[in-house]
């Protein structure tokens, strides 16, 4: 590795822009660059700026570039925006295939959207690749800059070459002022402002809040941890996302818990705001109609005894008992149960009577549990009367070859085949009963089954969630916030005071940001030493140019 | 409670008027002949900031009384949220003002806050009860932090706008002059919306249509402005109301498009009138105001407000948002459009900071980025709620 030897004799690694000892500019190119750019990483050699030959160098240089990083951010930004033009696949109705949905609803634009794969944009390989590229860029760019910066700030020399000081934006050479007393006073003033002041041969280096420079690197570490956490979701066992539909009164095993936990729905409640609840809400309720107030499942959590038979519900011990509401999940073990959905008034039981057709007199009443019809199939009525349930079609859809059909086991449209036993007909008469439909398939009957009301109950839709990545995400987020706050709310400020020949006092100041703050911060120290505050050369430049402008346009006189 | 709610509305109205008066004083402060350096103590500016503080106190009064009356933090619908955003904008302005004492900031920040309050009051202002998803302490925490973050970021837009008004040479025309004029035109369009909506509301205009929506269901819809476009298979129910009979596609929200057309129409007329009467571009009209502005200081303020606002926005818009989403919606992130646009906002300002820190994008470019950032924030605030339906559609 070749070295650059500075005039002061210090050996600097190849690629350095400023001498690490005295601060002299080492190369022609560095001399031409803006001070602010050179000072950003203290003029240190950075791998990406030094080596360009091997393939690894090229990859390193690609990802270490902020230009590349920002480009990746912008591509991700635009892609994310495209993903919101039409709803993503997981937001569209589940009963329509995506390929049809987009075209039928959004026409040709929807079709293009679907064909390009934008309906699942955030889950697409190229979007993941973009995020991965940003992650790589964050790591490499941080290493490329953070390490040299750390080294440079760690071994700062107090005395810098005049040329280094002269380059700074805040710089003044005070003639005839370089007395030890003045320097002492400046140092004292800066110390009062909580600067750490180092003195060497009468020169000063005052510095504060160096930690703020680590902010970007810390927040990048936080981001990487967050991204790792997000990736871990795909590791089996880390993440559970299940839906538990549970009817009032039912006890079901909680999916994802390997039959270890069971939940009983002790009742579902849906409340809406009523007019008069609070007079200030009345107007809104009148304008928009009913507004939901509460969705709640009163839940009892059971744990199965360890040596119980799998699948059995006999040996359950109550563990927890409380209401699950939106915003109030039930937590157990590493799981949480959330109130996310409901179906109101699902058919539960149907009441019937068996009547004598001629007199209209009922001879008995019975109730069919639509989920659990009488297992023996016989409903005993009054003396000598009974009804036999010979066929049950919970989701009746019509006849096929004379046979009634059921679409599903859910009682959406229940139909029944009954055999009515009476003293007159000990073998029974056959009746087919469906909603709004009464058939007598084997000829006219003497008795009939009449519908006598229903009982309903609600279904509660609960989301079962386990997410073992949360703590990693929280850790990443916390580190990110810490880094971003120290980087944004504090500023690294330095002041160099140099005793030059002929009693000239050189003063220079540098900050990574917030120059206005730096100037205000150091002014009292200079005042205390009896000096004007050092000049801001950028501001001078600007007021020069605006003065010139005003002269040219002839407006100066107006505001004098 | 109803009385408290009406006191609350009055306090907001007073705040609005006070901001208006304060703007006049800030304008006076930069015109003042005695005062050329544009910062520091100045009698006009002192009066201006005092009135601003009283106005802010009044708006804070609106916020607190409305909170008490409704029993929840008044940030639960578009009116409340946008009003709160405007309040945070004023608060951010006050803070930045006391750091830098730059008077010209008030001349632009306060009118923008005024316009935002006016805009917010075009949405239903009733106090509504909270739906179950919003019944959480996180409502106040998340929403107020987001609004504060966005408001601080918006100060960078104000500084950027002033910077550009001074920096861009309008006499030569060109791209920058065109886009600057476009930004100002956009602001005039918002004014157009406020004016037309207020005019029709004062006149008591209302009409109703039946129409067939995208799910093939027949429903009704209210129009607050005369119908220039009508909904899919729309039929006018209100007698004597105006309708062009120009039917829109079923996916188009016709009453909203109608409002947009009216706003653009009124805004464009307003803009043309300004151009005809003054014979200058709007940017050129504002330019004399900023002649004495200090570009370096404006650049610094723009950057500083992004630095202060970015962590606040991250905390409210991403961190608190994710925590609450995990509690209310079972997952910390679900690619809901509002979430995505918060991410986009965050990515944008992250890019802003990287361009500034590492690539030296200062001054003019930084100011343009601040303007674009504000456009993104406004898009997320308004358009995502109104155009892209999602979990956050609480208007």
TrEMBL record, chain A:
<keyword id="KW-0472">Membrane</keyword>
<dbReference type="InterPro" id="IPR023494">
    <property type="entry name" value="Cyt_c_bgen_Ccs1/CcsB/ResB"/>
</dbReference>
<dbReference type="InterPro" id="IPR007816">
    <property type="entry name" value="ResB-like_domain"/>
</dbReference>
<protein>
    <submittedName>
        <fullName>Cytochrome C biogenesis protein</fullName>
    </submittedName>
</protein>
<feature type="compositionally biased region" description="Basic and acidic residues">
    <location>
        <begin position="537"/>
        <end position="548"/>
    </location>
</feature>
<dbReference type="GO" id="GO:0016020">
    <property type="term" value="C:membrane"/>
</dbReference>
<feature type="transmembrane region" description="Helical">
    <location>
        <begin position="468"/>
        <end position="490"/>
    </location>
</feature>
<dbReference type="GO" id="GO:0017004">
    <property type="term" value="P:cytochrome complex assembly"/>
</dbReference>
<keyword id="KW-0201">Cytochrome c-type biogenesis</keyword>
<feature type="transmembrane region" description="Helical">
    <location>
        <begin position="68"/>
        <end position="86"/>
    </location>
</feature>
<feature type="transmembrane region" description="Helical">
    <location>
        <begin position="217"/>
        <end position="235"/>
    </location>
</feature>
<keyword id="KW-0812">Transmembrane</keyword>
<feature type="transmembrane region" description="Helical">
    <location>
        <begin position="125"/>
        <end position="147"/>
    </location>
</feature>
<keyword id="KW-1133">Transmembrane helix</keyword>
<feature type="region of interest" description="Disordered">
    <location>
        <begin position="537"/>
        <end position="560"/>
    </location>
</feature>
<dbReference type="Pfam" id="PF05140">
    <property type="entry name" value="ResB"/>
</dbReference>
<feature type="domain" description="ResB-like">
    <location>
        <begin position="66"/>
        <end position="522"/>
    </location>
</feature>
UniProtKB/TrEMBL annotation, chain B:
<feature type="transmembrane region" description="Helical">
    <location>
        <begin position="369"/>
        <end position="391"/>
    </location>
</feature>
<dbReference type="InterPro" id="IPR017562">
    <property type="entry name" value="Cyt_c_biogenesis_CcsA"/>
</dbReference>
<feature type="domain" description="Cytochrome c assembly protein">
    <location>
        <begin position="76"/>
        <end position="194"/>
    </location>
</feature>
<dbReference type="GO" id="GO:0005886">
    <property type="term" value="C:plasma membrane"/>
</dbReference>
<keyword id="KW-1133">Transmembrane helix</keyword>
<keyword id="KW-0472">Membrane</keyword>
<protein>
    <submittedName>
        <fullName>C-type cytochrome biogenesis protein CcsB</fullName>
    </submittedName>
</protein>
<dbReference type="InterPro" id="IPR045062">
    <property type="entry name" value="Cyt_c_biogenesis_CcsA/CcmC"/>
</dbReference>
<dbReference type="GO" id="GO:0020037">
    <property type="term" value="F:heme binding"/>
</dbReference>
<feature type="transmembrane region" description="Helical">
    <location>
        <begin position="177"/>
        <end position="203"/>
    </location>
</feature>
<feature type="transmembrane region" description="Helical">
    <location>
        <begin position="12"/>
        <end position="32"/>
    </location>
</feature>
<dbReference type="GO" id="GO:0017004">
    <property type="term" value="P:cytochrome complex assembly"/>
</dbReference>
<feature type="transmembrane region" description="Helical">
    <location>
        <begin position="143"/>
        <end position="165"/>
    </location>
</feature>
<feature type="transmembrane region" description="Helical">
    <location>
        <begin position="44"/>
        <end position="69"/>
    </location>
</feature>
<feature type="domain" description="Cytochrome c assembly protein">
    <location>
        <begin position="203"/>
        <end position="392"/>
    </location>
</feature>
<keyword id="KW-0201">Cytochrome c-type biogenesis</keyword>
<dbReference type="InterPro" id="IPR002541">
    <property type="entry name" value="Cyt_c_assembly"/>
</dbReference>
<feature type="transmembrane region" description="Helical">
    <location>
        <begin position="340"/>
        <end position="357"/>
    </location>
</feature>
<feature type="transmembrane region" description="Helical">
    <location>
        <begin position="81"/>
        <end position="100"/>
    </location>
</feature>
<keyword id="KW-0812">Transmembrane</keyword>
<feature type="transmembrane region" description="Helical">
    <location>
        <begin position="306"/>
        <end position="328"/>
    </location>
</feature>
<dbReference type="Pfam" id="PF01578">
    <property type="entry name" value="Cytochrom_C_asm"/>
</dbReference>
